[in-house]
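Hi there,

I know you've been waiting on this one. I reran it after we fixed the sequence typo, so this is the corrected version. Both the input and the resulting structure follow.
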Amino acid sequence: MTKAMPSRGPRLGTWLTVLASGAAIACALWLLWFFFWRIPAVNRTHPPGVRSVTTLRPEFTGAPDGVVALQDGGAFYFDGGNSSSSDGTGVLAGTATRADELREYLIPTKGEIQSVAIGPDGTLWATTILDNPTWPPVEHGTIVRITGNVMTTAFSIPKHLGYASALVAAPDGTFWFALADAHAVGHATRRGDTRVTILPRPIKPDTLALATNGNLYVAERGRPIIVRLSPQGKVLTLTSHHNVGALAAGPANEVWFTEEHSNRLGRITPSARIEEVETGSYMDTSAPIAVSNDSVWFAAADGVGRLSLRDRTSVAISLPNRPRSITSLAVSKTGVIWLTEALSDGRCVAECGAIVRITP
């Protein structure tokens, strides 16, 4: 009778198979960790000088068109048209607080907000556009004051001047506004007294910047011409190397602007000389811009760009949502950056947007 041989445990081949399987599993787990956690973690790391990037999603449909930094460190944002209002009788707007709370409301009006500016006393001013019930429709505008969800007309713009688009507030409580159809800019006091200055015919102004010395800079997006209007009424025409995207006033009587389809920013010196500064970030059409005490912030194809005023170094800040476009930028007195972005992704039934706060 043959006796069974005693078991000597797993053979060498079995052990090699187990080791190979374990190595394959470990490799697969490492790859999952690397691509789904490590790389996103690196991408979430903010560049030096940026502490946090916070995204807030408004409840109303449509993408916010503009944002203004408030004196308390928060922001006012708005959806310019009333397409997002169910009955078309108002503009949807809201405020974002430093505690990341959103308060949204409807501002009753039959018009559309074109631009908003904040006065030195914290008053919100806006330009609106209205359509007359005639055919063909005649567009005209108003300058309004916004208090909470109430819009009060300060004065109406004469119909032959069209409507006002861009708006900028002056330290003395007055403000300037662009009259594109009239090739002009207007200056108004809080009482409604206005003065209109006709610009060179090639200019249909839609972006403004008021330097700290009182010089007003005016441009038309998509054209290389910039007009400087002094407080004494003298007009000087400048020519950029590229088409202008948007203007923004900086410290020390400087004005900065984005250049369309370029990776450079333009700088207008106090002596009215135009310089170009390399940023390394490509800018598309009408890229918005804002200037703080130490940096120039601008919308770029890869997120938000930041150019140091001290050493002219530039960094790019990636945004979590990878927006289709950044629609506006604003900087508060504390240096906090607010921006609005338009999104088109799987979370949106139609186009939607977000409010982003960048804390340096």
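Quick highlight: The chain is about 10% helix and 45% strand.

Best,
R. S.
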